[in-house]
Amino acid sequence: MPLFHRDSLSSSSRNSIADTNERHGTGLFGHRASHSSRSSYSGTSSSASSAPSRHSSLLRGRRSEDPAITSARDRVYRAEAAEKAADKALYESRKAVQEARNHVKKLEKEAREEARLAKIKQHHAKDISKRAKPLGRKFIDY
Question: Region labeled Disordered — which residues (predicted)?
Fold first, then answer.
């Protein structure tokens, strides 16, 4: 039953249409109808069975649509797809840049740590060198 205008059908035919919709379980857009329930229903109402499907009427309207409109719609679809691909590429490039920056920061941190350890090693080597300098300088004559 249409939502926004009055139906001129009698109340008995309204009930049969409502029963048909309840048995099919159609939702607002008609996507919930199961094929098995349609084939098992054998109603006597001719108005419900002779009514054209919403989907086929929508498709029929597109077939008779102006080629310029169809072309424009296709271009919009392609533009939307291209924009989506560009957004994805932008996201991926930003992600790659962030990963590169994090890698550089990690390398800098490792280099600072290695430099710190090298200074400590150099300090220890200098201490050992100081202790080793006096060795061997004293000669004892026998």
Answer: 1-72
Q: Which two tokens stand for residue 9?
A: 């059908």
Q: Is residue 4 part of a domain?
A: no
Between CA 38 and CA 21 the distance in angstroms is 10
- C-alpha 121/C-alpha 107 separation (Å) is 21
Question: Amino acid identity, residue 12?
Answer: S
17 neighbors 1 (Cβ within 8 angstroms) = yes
Whether the full predicted model's pTM is greater than 0.90, yes or no, is no
Q: For residue 86, is it within any domain?
A: no
25 lies in which domain range? 9-41
Residue length, the chain? Answer: 142
Q: What is the pLDDT of residues 46-63, one digit of tens each?
A: 445 555 555 555 555 566
Whether residue 57 is contained in a domain is answered as no
pLDDT tens readout for residues 96-124:
999 999 999 999 999 999 999 999 999 99
In this structure, is residue 29 part of a structural domain? yes
